[in-house]
User: Fold Ferritin-like domain-containing protein from Litoribacter ruber.
Amino acid sequence: MIFPDHPSPKRLQDHDNQVLATLFLTDLKSIYGTEKEMLDILGLFLRKEFSKDFGKTISFYASISNKHVENLETIFLLVDNPIKSIHGHILSAVSQEAKDISEDNDSSPAIIDLKIYKLLSHFNHYKIACYSQLVAVSDKMGLTDVNGLLRENLHSEQKMSEKIQTSESLLTF
Assistant:
């Protein structure tokens, strides 16, 4: 229950299809962990040297990721589950790559920009796939309030993909 006097609109534990509910909750925890990790990584990148325009892209992505985290925390409340994240193998590998980039003091700023661009693209495509899956599952489960928030995150992630592609053209060597 969200508040003592306001029960959840649809508890996952009470859903007819528990396999689908378990898949949804696992994917929700996974994308939440990804978004939280993304914020940490973007913080590391904001301390690196890069072109001014690319720096704006990174700052913008951080603001989008913050909004995604807020939406995901709301979803946890709506489905009456504790806020929790899980980390998979893909996230661990990408996070390690981000840490390596943030500690790279030997490469030129242009090469750092290129490495960051590649990593942001990987994260972005992964997140689009995760949100697409969650939208499909929440739609199948009839979680309309949840579905709207997930579609909002998916849409902003797709817009971010366009911005990242535009930023690639700003990289100078």
User: Anything to note?
Assistant: The longest helix spans residues 109-141.
